[in-house]
TrEMBL record:
Record-linked InterPro entries: AlphaKG_dependent_hydroxylases, TauD-like_sf, TauD/TfdA-like
Keywords: Antibiotic biosynthesis, Dioxygenase, Oxidoreductase
Names of the cofactor(s): Fe(2+)
Presence of the UniProt keyword Iron in the record: no
PANTHER family xrefs: GAMMA-BUTYROBETAINE HYDROXYLASE-RELATED, TAUD_TFDA-LIKE DOMAIN-CONTAINING PROTEIN
UniProt protein name: TauD/TfdA family dioxygenase
Length: 326
């Protein structure tokens, strides 16, 4: 248990379990020593609540955030085989996904499109937005309760195949995704991560396909979690009009991103709508305050991002890997 002479701890909402909000009760409480001394209790609370918001510890710089990362995790992950634009700021610290401020980032579990993923996520608010910009959370058990057994079973038995085509000027380039200028290194990374790849159009364009899980067993709980990003990668995540235009231009095989079941069959639109509605219904919001740190169990809890105004800067770190490729 946390020492209540140091902090208070209670859920953000009386009717919910996440996030648990931990606040210092005295001004001289230093984050690093406190977190290191209470690591076991914090890990236990994370399994109970799924997410913990540390508020009032003034973690608003890369240097202070690195202290928190080292105190609360065993291993920081490099962000490879990227899905979103990020900047590395030093050590284990990246910016959170840098999509334009007017866009919503849909709810997801980090790297669930891969066979490698972090079990812990850490975020820190270096600069709070003027409006919006929340990082909504969703309890995956509650999300799964809204997904029909037929839909869940389809993903459990078939898995998900993620297709990516790296067209010039569309989405992320292969150089960004794989963080290299070398085609040979791309091949080595793909083989290590069990990603099928080929260079098409006379070797000018990279195409990748990875078969990954539809559901996964939680690393510490006796529980199977709906764990994939099919609803993000599927072309319809861009809206029907944009999806139709991309399909007309490229066809399904050459889309910049797409997802289907692992056996190659298309995911029914009704199931995708069901999944998106389940995530939307379970969103829990809080407004970022400068210096906040959010610790997330990446399998129990999904996250996203709301549109914002102002100069928002959220730091991020992906930690403590689970891998099916090691």
């Amino acid at each position: 248990m946390l020492d209540r002479s140091d902090v208070t701890a209670q859920p953000l909402r009386e009717d919910g379990r996440l996030p648990l909000v931990v606040r210092p009760v005295r001004d001289d409480l230093e984050a690093g020593p406190f977190l290191r001394a209470n690591r076991a209790a914090i890990d236990h609370l994370l399994l109970q609540h799924g997410a913990i918001l540390f508020r009032g510890f003034s973690i608003d710089s890369v240097e202070r955030f690195e202290v928190v990362i080292q105190a609360l995790t065993n291993e920081a992950l490099a962000y490879e085989y990227r899905s979103t634009p990020r900047e590395k700021l030093g050590g284990a610290t990246y910016t959170a996904s840098e999509y334009p401020a007017m866009h919503t980032i849909p709810m997801h579990c980090e790297n669930a499109y891969q066979r490698d993923w972090p079990t812990k996520l850490l975020f820190a608010c270096a600069r709070a937005p003027r409006t919006g910009g929340q990082t909504p959370l969703a309890d995956m058990v509650a999300v799964m309760s809204r997904i029909s057994p037929d839909c869940f079973d389809s993903f459990r038995t078939k898995g998900v195949a993620y297709l990516r085509n790296y067209h010039d000027g569309l989405d992320l380039s292969w150089r960004n995704v794989f963080q290299t200028e070398s085609r040979e290194e791309v091949g080595a990374i793909c083989r290590r991560l069990e990603i099928d790849f080929e260079w098409v159009d006379d070797g000018e364009r990279l195409r990748t396909r990875q078969l990954a899980q539809g559901v996964a067993r939680h690393h510490a709980l006796d529980q199977t979690i709906f764990f994939n990003q099919a609803h993000l990668f599927h072309v319809t995540s861009l809206g029907r009009e944009t999806a139709d235009a991309l399909i007309e231009t490229f066809g399904l095989e050459d889309l910049p991103r797409h997802a289907c079941f692992g056996d190659g069959s298309e995911i029914p639109s009704a199931q995708l709508a069901e999944i998106r509605a389940a995530f939307e219904a379970e969103k829990v919001h809080f407004d970022w305050q400068q210096g906040d740190v959010l610790l997330v169990d990446n399998m129990q809890v999904a996250h996203g991002r709301e549109p914002f105004t102002g100069d928002r800067l959220i730091l991020a770190s992906l930690c403590d890997a689970y891998s099916k490729c090691r």
